[in-house]
Amino acid sequence: MPELRKDPIIGRWVIIATSRGLRPKDYQAEKVRYLYQSCPLCPGQEEKTPPEVLAYRQSGSLPNTPGWTLRVVPNKFPALEVEGTLDREGVGLYDRMNGIGAHEVVIETPEHKKALSKFTEKEFENLLWAYRDRILDLRKDTRFRYIMIFKNYGEAAGASLEHSHSQLIALPIIPTAVVEELVGAKSHYEEKERCIFCDIIRQELSDGSRIVQENQEFLAITPFAPKFPFEVWILPKKHASSFDQGQKSQYEALSRIFLDVLRRLNVALKDPPYNFILHSSPLQERAEDYYHWHFEIMPTLTRVAGFEWGTGFYINPTPPEDAARFLREIDLTIESEEIP
Amino acid sequence: MPELRKDPIIGRWVIIATSRGLRPKDYQAEKVRYLYQSCPLCPGQEEKTPPEVLAYRQSGSLPNTPGWTLRVVPNKFPALEVEGTLDREGVGLYDRMNGIGAHEVVIETPEHKKALSKFTEKEFENLLWAYRDRILDLRKDTRFRYIMIFKNYGEAAGASLEHSHSQLIALPIIPTAVVEELVGAKSHYEEKERCIFCDIIRQELSDGSRIVQENQEFLAITPFAPKFPFEVWILPKKHASSFDQGQKSQYEALSRIFLDVLRRLNVALKDPPYNFILHSSPLQERAEDYYHWHFEIMPTLTRVAGFEWGTGFYINPTPPEDAARFLREIDLTIESEEIP
Questions:
Q1: Which EC number(s) does the record attach to this protein (chains A, B) (predicted)?
Q2: Closest-CA distance of chain B to residue A27, Å
């Protein structure tokens, strides 16, 4: 059973793989499993993954067989385990709990080589519905306090399989980065009785220099103080704390703008590795008034990794106003011929 | 002039290179300048760096000529600029200030190919004295609130030059990661009137399972909740908030244990890329009672980078107790023949 441990100084929880920890030689041997043949996520290979927990499939096709357009399975090498009770323990100064949680893989397409930026709006919208369906299902498990949904695209961004997929981790704790956002947003709300994200949206719409794209329901911006060059946030214009509580029209509008942003990044930065992360409200805590869900998309462009990991201090070599302008000026109508 | 910008939600300051920002094509072209010939940090190439601000040299040798054993120069491509006044500005919700600061390179040895783990204790001690000398000098500049000293070793850890060097950045703000530590340590002190780091040292000495090495003055441990596999912290056993306020014997003892830890990591993980970061008290704030300086050393072993950057959520595949045991069990007496 993995273990969750809390840093006694700053309160950050980390997952420690206690059961079968990697030894020094494992790191030397570690190669990213970038499989081109016998991909375990491809149709016909369903027996290579644990049984599916969700699939969108052709009517008549059987579970765990081909015929799906999207499939969600438990991670075969989970960072957390779903079975068991949530035991907590103090050891002197330290706090630990056993690593209860869900770790799932969202197989976004049956096509091995199809990148997300090549999805149709309908295909992309299905992915958003899958995120929502899994959140709604996992919400029933009261052991969980937070659901993280994220995608690693490309080796440099941490992807270990080429086949297009995203991941979901349900946690019995709230990750530090989310706690920081909640604390900041709550403090702004207590002072001004306004959501800070709504204030940001108003200011960005009025300023304009960091807007990448917008439609009736969503705004895509490069944030004022981005950690990474070409970082883009997509926020619903209307206040809402949880991703999974939207109307159908919202998912359609989000699909359009999200795909548009991914295509712009794809053209501007020539198919860059990237991560995106859904920031949504915690499951148990009440944050409706002051938290505002959004996606953060971060291309992996710089190598100054370890230092910034260690300090939380970021040096960004591209002003977000420049990044937004580059992305705005991309002509997507000529994209399809140029980029494979 | 670079710019410092504050994230309005969580309060994180980032440096934005506004003057000559990188364009999309610069990232595609970006190659790490791993120079083997005409290294700008080698003796005889002194004109390739800005004039030195500190050097330990043979008596009689002239500034900015060969004859040095260690040399500190301003970074030729600084993230912050030292000239100017510290102007602050609010723009609606947002805060910015101009990027005043110092960014220096500590050239640790004249020998191009000599890694830090191959230094003698005396050479390593000189490096610690150089850190101290620079801190004492930069303390005089009241614009600065924090001095970060760090090393990136190896390309994967962000080093852009092969020649052994570390870096110093003096900042008009306190980085988020340090603020978090200060807040946590202060809260512990207010509750218990004890330094949390001193409490950790007592518990680790009594427990023993995470001790890598110790001597009379210092303790090297793998922390209870490490972000990274084989992360090691080196702490002075006696409470002290600032690195630069120690006695001579402390720097000797620190040199011994630091070198011992680097050699163990070097053998266990076969010359891994790594970062180390000095965590010391801010320059203006009074944190003597509750803050406790230390070094954090983080080998770069895993690739799950972007996601953890984005969430502050870490999955560590090696329990720190295992890592400490592997490192303790290294026999350093047979090291020199095996490792180039």
A1: 2.7.7.12
A2: 6
Answer whether B135's CB lies under 8 Å from B245's CB: no
Give the ranges where B97-154 is alpha helix by DSSP (H): 121-138
For B139-157, give one letter per residue: b (16+ CB within 10 A) or e: eeeebbbbbbbbbbbbebb
Q: Which residues of A touch B148 (CB under 8 A)?
A: 311, 313
Shortest distance between the Cα of A153 and any Cα of chain B, in A, equals 10
**Which domains, and CATH codes, for chain B?**
102-338 (3.30.428.10)
Contact A312 B228 (CB under 8 A): no
Residue of B nearest to A203 (CA): B92
- Minimal C-alpha gap between B65 and chain A (Å): 31
- ipTM score of the complex? 0.88
- Higher pLDDT residue, A192 or B24? A192
Quote the strand ranges of chain B, DSSP E.
3-6, 13-16, 54-57, 68-74, 88-91, 94-98, 102-107, 146-153, 165-171, 211-214, 218-221, 232-236, 274-279, 294-299, 314-316
What backbone phi and psi angles, to 5 degrees, belong to B259? -65, -40
d(CA B210, CA B222): 5
Which three-class secondary structure state does DSSP give residue B294? strand
* Residue B42 assigned ligand-binding role: yes
- The residue of chain B nearest to residue A264, with distances taken between CA atoms, is B24
- Please tell me which of the candidates B12, B184, B275 has its beta carbon nearest to residue A11: B184
Least confident of A49-53, A96-100, B149-153: A96-100
Beta strands at B294-299 and B165-171: parallel, antiparallel or unpaired: unpaired
Smallest Cα–Cα separation from A314: which of A193, A231, A216?
Answer: A231
pLDDT tens-place values along chain B, 340 residues long: 788 888 888 888 888 876 656 777 777 544 444 545 689 999 999 999 999 999 999 999 999 999 999 999 999 888 888 888 888 899 999 999 988 999 999 999 999 999 999 999 999 999 999 999 999 999 999 999 999 999 999 988 888 889 999 999 999 999 888 889 999 999 999 999 999 999 999 999 999 999 999 999 999 999 999 988 999 999 999 999 999 999 999 999 999 999 999 999 999 999 999 999 999 999 988 899 999 999 999 998 876 555 676 677 788 889 999 999 999 999 998 755 444 3
Q: Which residue(s) pair with B170 in the sheet?
A: B102, B147
Q: Catalytic residue positions of B?
A: 165
Half-sphere exposure of A340 (CA within 13 A, CB side): 3
Give Cβ neighbours of residue A89 (< 8 Å, ≥ 6 apart): A95, A96, A97
The chain A residue lying nearest B296, using CA atoms, is: A310
* Contact flag B225-A14 (C-beta cutoff 8 Å): yes
Cross-sheet strand order for the sheet of A88-91 = A88-91, A94-98, A3-6, A13-16, B314-316
Interface test with A, best of B183, B316, B322, B325 (most A CBs within 10 A): B316
Kindly give, in sequence order, each residue whose CB lies less than 8 Å from that of residue B332, ignoring residues fewer than 6 positions away. Answer: B260, B263, B264, B267
Q: Within 13 Å of residue A133, how many CA atoms lie on the same side as its CB?
A: 15
Residue contacts between A and B (CB atoms, under 8 Å)? 288
Measure CB to CB from residue A224 to each of B8, B15, B197 and give the nearest one. B8
